[in-house]
Amino acid sequence: MSTRTLATAPAPSATRAWLGHHRQAAVSSLLRCLRRPWATLLTVSVMALALALPMGLSIALDNLKHFAGSVQQSRQISLFLHPDFSVDQARKLVTELEQRADVQGIELRTPEQGLQELRSVAGMGEAIDVLDENPLPSVLLVTPAAGSDEQALGEALAALPQADLVQHDALWRQRLDGWLALGTRLVNLLSSVLGIGALLVVGNTVRLDILARREEIDVLQLLGAGNGFIRRPFLYLGAWYGLGAGVVALGLWAACVAAIRPPLAALTQSYASPFVFKTLDALHSGFVLLGTTVIGVTGAWLVASHVLRQNRLVKG
């Protein structure tokens, strides 16, 4: 028992020393940033501007997708039946069409439902009361199955003897999907380019800090300190830069959203639209902060590793 205890005793001490150095490196790097506020603010601001632009474009693109309507709604095919077909006949047709493999679901809109919707439109109630009979036909809202040929389904519905008119916005939806896909690709490319720019900014800042502490690093290397031990404070320095840039970027877009929300709300209200501009929630904001921190750590790691490797080569 005593031999086993002596053999395992150094492990907690080594772990505590390792954790203690991490804590010391994190605190010392943070204090180093605070001791030079203007230089830190400049670095963080440049990174934040580089990161805020693609983040804002991504938010705007997501809201554009939301404003354009859900994919489910845009995939619906409207089948207008002949006016002389009764509601019972329309229900039988629904039962028949639901057996098709390329049909996911069908919603029946009766003439009475259509007339009620028209009554809700301002100024239409009096005009409808003048009518002797309901002129509206039954309408089937057909949702194609996933992966089915929507164009072929639309043509099959148009060939039905009960069909009077088939309305399908497949071409419009394909064009909209194409524009949204192009926008997503541009946002991804811009995010990559500006993310590399932010990485270079933090990398250059950490390089200058390493050069300013060259003598301290030389002493540590003479004492036998490994690259991981020497590099650790600079990694935390990059992490603080990245975290600060993420906070500033989120603050910038919060201010932008607060500025555009009132006129946007007035615009959507004038169109009687329920659209509400969506911004990042707490979970996605946390992912943004994590991503910017990773960028800062990555830039610091690349530069610190390169400088330390070059320093050892020069000494060798």
UniProtKB/TrEMBL annotation:
- Outline the extent of the FtsX extracellular domain: 76-164
Q: Chief localization class?
A: membrane
Q: Name one GO biological process term.
A: cell division
Q: Which residues form the ABC3 transporter permease C-terminal domain?
A: 189-311
One Pfam family this sequence matches: FtsX
Sorted alphabetically, which keywords does the UniProt record give?
Cell cycle, Cell division, Cell inner membrane, Cell membrane, Membrane, Transmembrane, Transmembrane helix
Could you identify this protein by its name?
Cell division protein FtsX
Q: Which organism is it from?
A: Stenotrophomonas koreensis
